[in-house]
Amino acid sequence: MTDGAPLTDHRDGRPEPLRLAVGCTFGLESVQPASAIMQVAPRPAPGVSIRSERWGTDADHHCYMDHYGNRCERFRLGAGATQIDYEAEVELTHAADVIEPDAPETPVESLPDDVLSFVMPSRFCLPDELGHEAWQRFGDLTPGWQRVQAIVDYVHGHLEFMPGASNPWTTAADVYRAGQGVCRDFAHLAITFCRALNIPARYVFGYIPDIGVPPTDEPMDFAAWFEAYLDGQWRTFDARNNTPRIGRVVVGRGRDAVDVALVTSFGPLTLTEFTVRADGVRPAAAPPEER
Predict the structure, then answer these.
(1) CB 159 within 8 A of CB 189
(2) Most buried residue, 46, 51, 78, 166, by CB count within 10 Å?
(3) Pairing of the two strands 160-161 and 18-30
(4) What's CA 196's distance to the chain center, in Å?
(5) CB of 189 within 8 A of CB of 175?
(6) Contact assessment for residue 205 and residue 257, using Cβ atoms and an 8 Å cutoff
């Protein structure tokens, strides 16, 4: 984060909540009226407070929650050009990634019923197709956090980040063979290896500000990472960045990217403009004390 507020501590040692301004702009063009679903608003969760938000568009729209608990905005778009802006100020109680290197795996027979679907194959994550590779590379490692981190390390080193290297139909098996992809491909491959080892893993995407990391020349974009179920909790891992980050704002969670598509269109849509923003918000100065 270049101009945002650094993390500070309360006097009792608890981290100071972090405020972020997040948002995006879409320019869309359609030759006929169309409908679209967008997922760009922060997902409700403990420790996440949406202080304010605003949609800027002339298009008719309303919000609904999908069966994964993600916020979805449904639009009616007229023929021609449409611009959609979204802005929100978010406060995070716990802003930094939590590292638990001693967290063990939960045996598959002890997994909660609602977690089992995240061990199964899904459209882009194919543990049945890459199961042999997963067990050969990671099967002898001690189960738990360190094995998941070994998967992350391998995927981070095996894949080259290459914008445009994949398309909306690229699976984890495709990207494994190609050796390159974008952040969603890194997440899909790591998820696939985890599931092949009976470690539940789910896809996550959202905003990540540049806090505590060197600035890059790449324009900001939505980011994808994943969560693995260890010791009865979902834990954050990031095969693309492979480093702890501060200020992740989750937009969507699902089995893979098909469950949390940024834009789902019903009718022909052309993307003409796209920007993403995630920056720190400096706290307001405290009023002077009265004497």
Answers:
(1) yes
(2) 166
(3) unpaired
(4) 21
(5) yes
(6) yes
